[in-house]
Fold this sequence. Notes:
Blueprint: H1 3-22, H2 24-33, H3 39-53, H4 61-75, H5 78-91, H6 95-108, H7 111-132
Helix pairs in contact: 1-2, 1-3, 4-5, 4-6, 5-7, 6-7
Amino acid sequence: MDDASKNAARYRTGVEVRRSVLGNQHVDRAEAAATDFDRPFQQLITEAAWGTVWSRPGLSKRERSIVTLALLAALGHDEELAMHVRATANTGASRDDICEAFLHVAIYAGVPAANRAFKIAKEVFSQMDDAHA
């Protein structure tokens, strides 16, 4: 298989995994919003993050979700953190799992980072609960 075929296969896998984690609505919005300027970036994250890393067999989607939440919280990437908290509805990571991840963040990355992460998660949970009420 040549490089172009490998990239195309990785992109297809990435789209499937991305949709299964973030949901069709999110991916459709991202694709519709893509321009000539950022389309290469969308392709990169679809192939690399979703088609390569998230599709590996070593960890479940739940486990990858927990790791991702801890990393995003530790790095202070609030918008991505909120998106991945919403994605736990698709990955199987529970609210207890998220709490445990953020407790680790408090110890290994600092209390302010964990405090912010808990605040964001509570806001997202409230939105999710309201949508299901």
